[in-house]
Design goal:
It is built from three helices and 31 strands. With about 350 residues, the protein is mainly beta.
Length: about 350
């Protein structure tokens, strides 16, 4: 009786909290005997590799009209292993530019401090790969025997000892803006012709990690999303588009592709569901080099936020994915752009609105 009395009177004790938590876990295990009870996944830290939209060790090649938004780099190979871009070196020989790239292009043989920058980025890329590969206690193992076509994948750690394929039926990755997905793939990742990786529920490109020990192949007109950490090569076929980061420990080959770095989402709030679509004035404005764009979505749908120059030419895409009703913010980083007037446009369903902003450097 004394033990019972002491236990019930000390509900804040460590022992009480521990036994209560244990009871809840046992109850869940009884209700869901096949479930793996784990804490929420932490994103993979990319380090300085996260500064690049494409990063490779042995080369990057492009044919056709490719459009890349973000920085590109190779190491330990030289700039001669970046082909099809028509590189134009800057006056200090620390980076190059290209008509195909909205951003800078770096190589190991450029002037100081670029060699050190690239060595660090490659090291961080390999560390990130090992981190993703080393995650334990997967929530799902050998799911659908590697064919995830037509499936909806909820947050968690996935592990396959085989290749993984997504055919023309596509795949949906569904979860909130803070959820994380890590896909551990022991062989190849094949995204077939016309296959689309769709995000729903607020899932963010920057929280989706494809750790692939084999090669990655994106078919013609495929639409891929996420961070690819590949131990070998990444090949994109004609017309394929990719929103994320292609980080390869060998080469990346492109063929008339659109490659866009993930948007930086600072916060998402669904506490108060908006009653209408709105696009706020960016803040600060004028700005240098970053500014926050806020917008509200009243109905689930495909949302696009793009940047235009004064000629009306689209020069960047900040958001292009399915969104649920809520209030969103995205940061526009204009460090690669010259001072001047720019426009940003929100499009979703039948709603469209455009606003002006001023970059002053």
């Amino acid at each position: 009786m004394k033990i019972y009395t002491t236990f019930t009177k000390n509900r804040d004790s460590i022992f009480y909290r521990w036994i209560s938590s244990l009871g809840i876990m046992l109850l869940l295990a009884l209700i869901f005997p096949g479930a793996v009870l784990t804490q929420q996944l932490e994103p993979v830290n990319l380090g300085t590799a996260g500064d690049f939209v494409i990063l490779a060790k042995t080369g990057i090649s492009s044919t056709g009209v490719t459009a890349i938004t973000g920085d590109v780099g190779v190491s330990p190979v030289a700039a001669t292993f970046i082909t099809g871009f028509g590189l134009i070196k800057d006056s200090g020989n620390t980076f190059s530019t290209s008509s195909l790239v909205t951003g800078k292009i770096y190589a190991a043989d450029y002037a100081v401090p670029t060699p050190t920058k690239m060595t660090t980025a490659i090291g961080d890329m390999q560390t990130a790969f090992s981190n993703a590969a080393g995650r334990k206690s997967p929530n799902y193992t050998e799911l659908y025997t590697g064919d995830i076509t037509g499936k909806t994948l909820t947050p968690g750690l996935y592990k396959w000892g085989t290749a993984v394929q997504v055919n023309s039926g596509g795949v949906t990755i569904s979860g909130s803006a803070t959820d994380v997905w890590i896909f551990q793939i022991a062989q190849d990742l094949i995204v077939g012709n016309g296959a689309i990786v769709t995000l729903s529920g607020g899932a963010q490109v920057s929280n989706i990690f494809w750790q692939v020990a084999g090669k990655v192949a994106l078919g013609t007109t495929a639409q891929m999303k996420g961070i690819i950490l590949c131990q070998t090569g990444i090949a994109m076929s004609t017309g394929a588009s990719f929103n994320g980061r292609a980080l390869a420990q060998t080469a990346v080959t492109l063929d008339a592709n659109t490659v866009t770095k993930p948007a930086t989402v600072t916060s998402v709030s669904d506490k108060f569901i908006p009653q209408q679509f709105t696009l706020e004035q960016n803040y600060p404005n004028p700005f240098n080099p970053t500014s926050t764009i806020s917008y509200s979505i009243a109905k689930t749908g495909l949302v696009n936020v793009s940047i235009y120059n004064v000629l009306g030419t689209e020069i960047g895409v900040l958001v292009n994915e399915m969104k649920t009703p809520g209030n969103y913010k995205v940061v526009f980083d204009a460090k690669e752009f010259a001072s001047g007037v720019y426009f940003y446009k929100l499009r979703t369903g039948e709603f469209s609105q455009i606003k002006k902003m001023i970059l002053m450097k």
